[in-house]
C-alpha cells in the first residue's frame, strides 16, 4: 500500500487540522465532523492523520487490540489471558467505513467460513472492532443509512459494541474517535448523530489562486512519487507527532481557572445550546488546545479559538434564520468576551 | 517544443474529433482515471469503444461491469456454494481485483448504486483493492481505468463521487454516425500511443501551465483539486502524444478544453486586469508564453510558495478562452440564465440507491433462496431447514455422522427491508394570476417542510411554471442550505401553463419513482390555466391540456395534493384536481404553516 499524503503537506485548512490534532491529543473530546465541498481535502487529512499518530501498545493477538493497562475495560478474551500479557506496538487504526457498508461488516457477524468449513460458531469482528482505540472515518456521513446511524449513535455513546444475532452473543470494547465528513448540499445530519461529534469544522475551497496552485502542485508531486514526497515531509510530520506526544503528557496537568469556566458557561447560555454536552466539549477541547500549545493554564484565548468548532453544530436550528451558525457563534463570542 | 502558434480554441474542432483526442489521451495512461461517455447505445458509442479497444496496450482487458453488481461480486468474497461443497474456504475473485491493469466499462453508469460507485472511486484513488471481510489477506494492487457509459436522460446523472475522478466527460448524444466518418485520419495509431506512453513519465510541466490550469478551473467554477489535477495529467499526456518532453500552454489549452470545460458551473468573469489581453479570435502574443525556460524535468517544486501571483498569469487567458469556447452552447445559455450549478448534476447519484429486497436495511425475516453474492445467508435458519432431512440424506457411501448434508433448497437468506423515502414535489404556479405573495408562502412551506423532514430523511423538490414552460428550481434534496439558495430567486409573472407544469411534475415523479422513492406531488395554483401545452394562449385548449396531463398523473398512480390558492375556489380547479385524482384543498388565505400542515396531514392519511 502506498504512503498516505503527509499531514504537514496539507495547505491551509487550519481549523480542520487543529480539530484533528485535538482529537488525537484527547479522544474524549468526542470526534470531529468536517463539512465542506467535495475535493477540499477532507479525506486526505483524515487519512494523513493515520500516518502521524504515535503507535500504541496493545495486547498481542487481541482482535480488539486492547490496551494492556486498561484493567476492567479489557475485552473478555484478554481478561481470560494470563496476567503478564504479551504486548506489541501497533499503529493507531484509522478505519474507513465505506458508504454502503452492510450491518454485518460494521458490527461483525458469524464467521461464515469457520461455520461452513468447520462447523464452529465463532464471531468475526467488524469495522467497529477494528476501530477500537483508533479512529472511525465515515466519508459522506450524511448519506449514511438510517439503521447504521442508529447503531453508531449507540456504540459511540457507550464505547461498547453489543452483538446479539444469529445465535451469537458478544460484547466487546469499541471506543473510537468518530470522524465524519460530508457535503451539506447533499443532505442534513440527524441531530442525535450531530450531537455525538465533539467538534465540527466547516471548510471551504481556498479562494486565492496561489494556494490553489500550491495544493495542486503538491498533490501532483505526491502522485508521481508517493514515497519520495512522504520522505521529504517526514521531518515536519515527526515534529507534529512530538507535539501530540508532549501535549498528551501535559494534558492531565492543564488547569482551568474559574473565570474561564464562567466564560464558557456564559457563552453557552448566550447561544442557548441544549444540554451540558456543549459546555463539556468546549472545556475539554480548550484544555487539549492549551496542551497542544504547550501551556498549562486555559485562558479566554483558547476558548475563543475553539468555540466555533465546539458549538456551531449544537445551536438549535431555525429554518427561517438566514445567518449561518458560525456567524451566530462569533456574534455571541463578541458579546460575552466584550463584557 | 513546437514553434507553431498555439491552437486557438479550434472553432472547427468537431465534437467527434475531441472525443477521439480524449480517447487517445486516456489510452496513454488509463489507470486511476477515466472517461464518462454520455451517449445512448448505438453506432456512435460503438465506434468510440472500438477505437478504444484498438488503442489500449495489447493485452489490456476491457471488462463490462453491470450497474447492479453487488459489493461481494465487486471486491470478492467467500463462495458459499463451493465452500459448502468442498468443506474448505473457496474465495471468489472480485470483479475489481480481476480488472487490475485493464479497463472497466461501467454499463449504465447513471444507475450505479452510490455504494458501488464509492467503492470504485476509492479503488481508483488508492490503486489498492481492499476486500470487505479480510483486510490483511485482500489488499492487493488494483489499478484500472474506467469508462462510464452514461445513458442518462433528464434528471438522471452519474454520481458525482465517480464523475469527479473521471478526467474526460464526453457527450456524444448530439452526434449521428455520419459525424464519425471523416475524422478517421486524426486518430493517432497504436504505435504513437505506445511512444507517448514511454515518454509520459519524463514529461515536465511548467509552472505557467500549472497556474493557467488552476486559474481556468477557478474561473469556470470547475471544481477544485481534482479537476485541475486531472487537467494537469491530461496536459502531460497531450505533450507526450505530441512527442514533447515539456507540457506547454498548447497542451494546457487542450486539457482545459477536454477536462475543465465540461465541468464549468459558471461563466468566467471578465478579466479584471490586463487590458492588453488579445481579443479571443486573434492569435495571442504567444512568444513569451510558448517558450518557457527549460526546466529540470522534476516537477517537485513545492517550496516555491510565494512566487506565484494572485491572479492567473497572462497565458491563462488563452487557456481559459480555449475552455470557454468548448463549453456546450446549451450549457452556456443555462449558465447565463442562472448562477447556480447545473441542475441536472444536482442531487444526482442517488438513483438506484434504495433498491427493495437488497442487501441493506433492517432484517425482517428469512426466505428460501439459493446463496448468491450479495445476499445474506442466514446460517442458523439454513441448518434448521436441513436438520429434519439428515437421516434420509445419509447414504451408505458417505455415512459419516459428523457432516451435515445441505442441499440447494435448504438455503435461507435474511430478508431485509428498507423504508422507501417520500419525495415531495412542489409544483408552484408562479404566474401573474396566482398572486405574487403566494410564492413567498410556497417558499416558506417548502422550508418548513424541509426543516421537519430532514429528520425523517425525506426529500423535497420544487418545480415552478410560468410564462410558457416549467422550470426545475430545486432538484430532489434534503438540504436546507440548498433549498434556500435555489428558492431565493423564484421569479413570478406571466401566463399559466398548467399543462406544462403538470407534465414536468409527471416526469420528475417518474424519475423519483425509478430511483426507488415514492413521489408525492403538491400543486399550488389557482387552476386558471391559460397557456396550452404547445405554448399557445387560450383558456379552452389550456384547460383541456391540463386535464389530460392530470389524467396521466392519475393513471401513473402518483399521489397528489391540489392546493387551490385562489381567493374564491373555482369549479375549474376542482375539475382538474378530480382528473389528477388529487386531494383537493382550497386554502384561499394559505400561509406557509397552513400549507405545510396540509401536506403533512395528507401524507399521514395515505
Would you mind describing this structure in some detail?
- The complex is a heterodimer of chains A (339) and B (606).
- With 339 residues, chain A is an alpha/beta fold.
- Chain A is 47% helix and 15% strand.
- Chain A is built from 14 helices and eleven strands.
- Chain A has a five-stranded parallel β-sheet. Chain A has a two-stranded antiparallel ribbon with strand order 2-3.
- In chain A, helix 9 crosses helix 10 (226-250).
- Chain A is globular, with a radius of gyration of 21 Å.
- In chain B, strands 16-15-14-17-18-19 form a six-stranded mixed β-sheet, with helices on both faces. A five-stranded parallel β-sheet of chain B has the order 2-5-8-1-9, with helices on one face. A two-stranded antiparallel sheet of chain B has the order 3-4.
- In chain B, helix 21 links the parallel strand 17 (518-525) and strand 18 (559-564).
- The longest helix of chain B has 18 residues, at 436-453.
- Chain B is an alpha/beta fold and 606 residues long.
- The chains are: A alpha/beta (339), B alpha/beta (606).
- Chains A and B meet through helix 4, helix 5, helix 9 and helix 10 of A and helix 4, helix 6, helix 10, helix 11 and helix 18 of B.
Amino acid at each position: 500500500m502506498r504512503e498516505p499524503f503527509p499531514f504537514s503537506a496539507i495547505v491551509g485548512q487550519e481549523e480542520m487540522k487543529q480539530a484533528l490534532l485535538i482529537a488525537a491529543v484527547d479522544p474524549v473530546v468526542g470526534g470531529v465532523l468536517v463539512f465542506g465541498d467535495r475535493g477540499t481535502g477532507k479525506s486526505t487529512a483524515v487519512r494523513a492523520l493515520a500516518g502521524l499518530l504515535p503507535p500504541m501498545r496493545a495486547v498481542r493477538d487481541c482482535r480488539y487490540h486492547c490496551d494492556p493497562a486498561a484493567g476492567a475495560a479489557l475485552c473478555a478474551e484478554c481478561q481470560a489471558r494470563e496476567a503478564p500479557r504479551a504486548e506489541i506496538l501497533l499503529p493507531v487504526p484509522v478505519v474507513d467505513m465505506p458508504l454502503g457498508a452492510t450491518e454485518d461488516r460494521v458490527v461483525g457477524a458469524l464467521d461464515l467460513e469457520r461455520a461452513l468449513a468447520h462447523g464452529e460458531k465463532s464471531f468475526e469482528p467488524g469495522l467497529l472492532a477494528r476501530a477500537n482505540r483508533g479512529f472511525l472515518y465515515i466519508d459522506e456521513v450524511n448519506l449514511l443509512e438510517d439503521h447504521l446511524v442508529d447503531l453508531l449513535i449507540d456504540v459511540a455513546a457507550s464505547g461498547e459494541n453489543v452483538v446479539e444475532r444469529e445465535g451469537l452473543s458478544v460484547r466487546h470494547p469499541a471506543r473510537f474517535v468518530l470522524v465524519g465528513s460530508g457535503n451539506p448540499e447533499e443532505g442534513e445530519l440527524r441531530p442525535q448523530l450531530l450531537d455525538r461529534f465533539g467538534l465540527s469544522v466547516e471548510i471551504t475551497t481556498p479562494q486565492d489562486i496561489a494556494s490553489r496552485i500550491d495544493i495542486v502542485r503538491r498533490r501532483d508531486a505526491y502522485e508521481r512519487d508517493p514515497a519520495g514526497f512522504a520522505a521529504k515531509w517526514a521531518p515536519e510530520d515527526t515534529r507534529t507527532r512530538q507535539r501530540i506526544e508532549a501535549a498528551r503528557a501535559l494534558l492531565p496537568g492543564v488547569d482551568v481557572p474559574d473565570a474561564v469556566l464562567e466564560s464558557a458557561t456564559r457563552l453557552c447560555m448566550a447561544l442557548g445550546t441544549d444540554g451540558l454536552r456543549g459546555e463539556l466539549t468546549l472545556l475539554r477541547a480548550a484544555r487539549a488546545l492549551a496542551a497542544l500549545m504547550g501551556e498549562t493554564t486555559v485562558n479566554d484565548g483558547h476558548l475563543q479559538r475553539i468555540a466555533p468548532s465546539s458549538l456551531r453544530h449544537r445551536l438549535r436550528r431555525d429554518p427561517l434564520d438566514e445567518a449561518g451558525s458560525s456567524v451566530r457563534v462569533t456574534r455571541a463570542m463578541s458579546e460575552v468576551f466584550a463584557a | 517544443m513546437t514553434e507553431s502558434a498555439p491552437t486557438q480554441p479550434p472553432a472547427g474542432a468537431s465534437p467527434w474529433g475531441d472525443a477521439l483526442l480524449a480517447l487517445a489521451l486516456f489510452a496513454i495512461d488509463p489507470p486511476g482515471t477515466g472517461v464518462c461517455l454520455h451517449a445512448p447505445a448505438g453506432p456512435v458509442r460503438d465506434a468510440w469503444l472500438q477505437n478504444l479497444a484498438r488503442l489500449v496496450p495489447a493485452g489490456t482487458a476491457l471488462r463490462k461491469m453491470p450497474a447492479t453488481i453487488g459489493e461481494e461480486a465487486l471486491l470478492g468474497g467467500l463462495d458459499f456454494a463451493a465452500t459448502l461443497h468442498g468443506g474448505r474456504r473457496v474465495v471468489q475473485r472480485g470483479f475489481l481485483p480481476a480488472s487490475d491493469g485493464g479497463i472497466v466499462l461501467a454499463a449504465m453508469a447513471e444507475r450505479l448504486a452510490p455504494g458501488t460507485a464509492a467503492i470504485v472511486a476509492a479503488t481508483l484513488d488508492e490503486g489498492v483493492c481492499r476486500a470487505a471481510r479480510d483486510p490483511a489477506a485482500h489488499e492487493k494492487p488494483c489499478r484500472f481505468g474506467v469508462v462510464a457509459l452514461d445513458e442518462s436522460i433528464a434528471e438522471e446523472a452519474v454520481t458525482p463521487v465517480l464523475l469527479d475522478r473521471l478526467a474526460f466527460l464526453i457527450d456524444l448524444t448530439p452526434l449521428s454516425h455520419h459525424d464519425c466518418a471523416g475524422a478517421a485520419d486524426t486518430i493517432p495509431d497504436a504505435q504513437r500511443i505506445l511512444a507517448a506512453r514511454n515518454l509520459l513519465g519524463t514529461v515536465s510541466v511548467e509552472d505557467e501551465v500549472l497556474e493557467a490550469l488552476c486559474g481556468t478551473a477557478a474561473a469556470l467554477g470547475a471544481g477544485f483539486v481534482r479537476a485541475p489535477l486531472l487537467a494537469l495529467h491530461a496536459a502531460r499526456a497531450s505533450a507526450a502524444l505530441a512527442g514533447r518532453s515539456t507540457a506547454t500552454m498548447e497542451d494546457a489549452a487542450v486539457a482545459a478544453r477536454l477536462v475543465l470545460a465540461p465541468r464549468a458551473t459558471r461563466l468566467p468573469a471578465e478579466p479584471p486586469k490586463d487590458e492588453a489581453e488579445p481579443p479571443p479570435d486573434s492569435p495571442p502574443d504567444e512568444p513569451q508564453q510558448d517558450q518557457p525556460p527549460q526546466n529540470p524535468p522534476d516537477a517537485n517544486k513545492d517550496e516555491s510558495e510565494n512566487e506565484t501571483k494572485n491572479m492567473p498569469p497572462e497565458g491563462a487567458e488563452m487557456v481559459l478562452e480555449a475552455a470557454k469556447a468548448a463549453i456546450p452552447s446549451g450549457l452556456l445559455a443555462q449558465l447565463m440564465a442562472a448562477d447556480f450549478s447545473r441542475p441536472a448534476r444536482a442531487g444526482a447519484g442517488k438513483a438506484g440507491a434504495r433498491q427493495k429486497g437488497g442487501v441493506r436495511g433492517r432484517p425482517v425475516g428469512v426466505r428460501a433462496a439459493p446463496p448468491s453474492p450479495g445476499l445474506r445467508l442466514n446460517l442458523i435458519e439454513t441448518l434448521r431447514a436441513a436438520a429434519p432431512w439428515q437421516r434420509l440424506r445419509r447414504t451408505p457411501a458417505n455415512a459419516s455422522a459428523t457432516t451435515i448434508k445441505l442441499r440447494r433448497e435448504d438455503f435461507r437468506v435474511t430478508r431485509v427491508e428498507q423504508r422507501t423515502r417520500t419525495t415531495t414535489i412542489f409544483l408552484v404556479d408562479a404566474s401573474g394570476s396566482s398572486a405574487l405573495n403566494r410564492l413567498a408562502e410556497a417558499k416558506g412551506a417548502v422550508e418548513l417542510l424541509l426543516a421537519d423532514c430532514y429528520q425523517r430523511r425525506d426529500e423535497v423538490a420544487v418545480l415552478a411554471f410560468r410564462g410558457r414552460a416549467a422550470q426545475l428550481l430545486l432538484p430532489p434534496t434534503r438540504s436546507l442550505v440548498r433549498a434556500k439558495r435555489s428558492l431565493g430567486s423564484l421569479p413570478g409573472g406571466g401566463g399559466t401553463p398548467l399543462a406544462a407544469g403538470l407534465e414536468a411534475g409527471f416526469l420528475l415523479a417518474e424519475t423519483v419513482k425509478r430511483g426507488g422513492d415514492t413521489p408525492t406531488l403538491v400543486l399550488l395554483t389557482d387552476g386558471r390555466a391559460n397557456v396550452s401545452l404547445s405554448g399557445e394562449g387560450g383558456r379552452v385548449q389550456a384547460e383541456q391540456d391540463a386535464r389530460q396531463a392530470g389524467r396521466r398523473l392519475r393513471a401513473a398512480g402518483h399521489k397528489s395534493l391540489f392546493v387551490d390558492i385562489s381567493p374564491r375556489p373555482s369549479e375549474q380547479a376542482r375539475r382538474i384536481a378530480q382528473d389528477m385524482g388529487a386531494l383537493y384543498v382550497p386554502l384561499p388565505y394559505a400561509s406557509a404553516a397552513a400549507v405545510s400542515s396540509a401536506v403533512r396531514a395528507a401524507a399521514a392519511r395515505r
